[in-house]
Amino acid sequence: MITKEILQIRSDIENNLRKMLARAVMVTELDVFALPCGCSGITVNVRGLELDDIEVFEEQMLSFFKDVASRLEVPSSFIFARLIPGSSVVAAINWRVLCDRCYPEFATASGKMPRPDIYIMHFERRGEKGDGKKR
Ligand SMILES: [Zn+2]
Predict the structure, then answer these.
(1) How far, in Å, from the CA of 24 to the mean position of ligand 1?
(2) How far is the CA of 23 from the centre of ligand 1 (A)?
(3) Is residue 129 in a domain?
(4) DSSP alpha helices (H): ranges in 74-126?
(5) Predicted model pTM
(6) What 3-state class would DSSP assign to 48?
(7) CB-based contacts of 46: which residues, under 8 Å, 6+ apart?
(8) DSSP secondary structure code for residue 131 in this structure
(9) Which of the four, 38, 62, 102, 125, has the lowest number of CB atoms within 10 Å?
(10) Considering the domain boundaries, does residue 47 fall inside one?
């Protein structure tokens, strides 16, 4: 991953969301992260995005986010929106590659919102790898 590329991807995400929603949405920061537990991934900090937008455009957003993940060479097995708790404001979109310790926490959760601050857009259970059959 090179810095020029993540700059380009930041702006592509912003432009894509703006086009999709016909509204000003800002991607304020695109971050790569690694946690002590072994999880890693990408965080896209956004401004101007609401949970409603994701629910309405979920399919388009997801297919776009999967493309972005592959451009960044990040597996898109787990994609979620992080909300400001108690509100419908989306603070960030995350692609997270779960470590073995964190995986069960999400694998056993049911529904799209296992926590008030997390809205799951896509979660692949281990052993049922995304092989492109799911459209
Ligand atoms: Zn972890």
Answers:
(1) 33
(2) 35
(3) no
(4) 103-107
(5) 0.89
(6) coil
(7) 17, 25, 26, 27, 28, 90, 91, 92, 93
(8) -
(9) 125
(10) yes
Distance 36 CA to ligand 1 centre (A): 7
User: Separation of 106 CA from ligand 1 center, angstroms?
Assistant: 11
Task: Give me ligand 1 centre to Cα 47, in Å.
Answer: 26
Does a structural domain hold residue 135? no
Residue numbers of the domain that contains 50: 3-16+26-123
Distance from residue 124's CA to the centre of ligand 1 (Å): 16
**CB contact burial 3-16 (16+ within 10 A = b; e otherwise):** eeebeebbeebbeb
Cα of 78 from ligand 1 centre, angstroms: 12
Say how many Å lie between the CA of residue 40 and the centre of ligand 1.
Answer: 8
Per-residue pLDDT tens, the chain, 135 aa: give them: 588 999 999 999 999 999 999 999 999 999 999 999 999 999 999 999 999 999 999 999 999 999 999 998 999 999 999 999 989 999 999 999 999 999 999 998 888 998 899 999 999 998 755 544 444
Asked whether residue 133 is domain-assigned, the answer is no
Length of the chain: 135
